[in-house]
Amino acid sequence: MERFNRIMLEEWAYARVHTSETERRAALPGWLHTYNHQRCHTALGGHPSASRVPNLTGQNN
């Protein structure tokens, strides 16, 4: 959890200057999607975290 918090601060909260807290909050969903679906994680062999969740899209019934 500590690593996630550090990465979130570095890559979302303070990665760019936000003109307001509202703007910063608006950027969070996009950052979370990138973090979970596109960002490679070394602990997962270079795969995104979403790759570890079976049937994430709900297509398999």
Question: Mind explaining what this structure looks like?
Answer:
- The chain is mainly α.
- The protein has one domain (2-52).
- It is 48% helix and 0% strand.
- The chain has 2 helices and no strands.
- The chain is globular, with a radius of gyration of 14 Å.
- The termini are far apart.
What fraction of the residues are assigned to beta strands by DSSP? Answer: under 5%
Shape: globular
What's the helix count? 2
Structural class: mainly alpha
Number of strands: 0
Helix content: 40-55%
- Measured distance between first and last alpha carbons: 31 Å
Integer-rounded radius of gyration: 14 Å
Mean pLDDT: 89
Major sheet characteristics: none
Low-confidence parts? none
SSE run: HH
Number of domains: 1
What is the gist of this entry?
The protein is mainly α. Helix content is 48%, strand content 0%.
What is the topology?
Layout (H helix, E strand, L loop, with lengths): L1 H12 L7 H17 L24
Tag the structure with descriptive keywords.
61 residues, mainly alpha
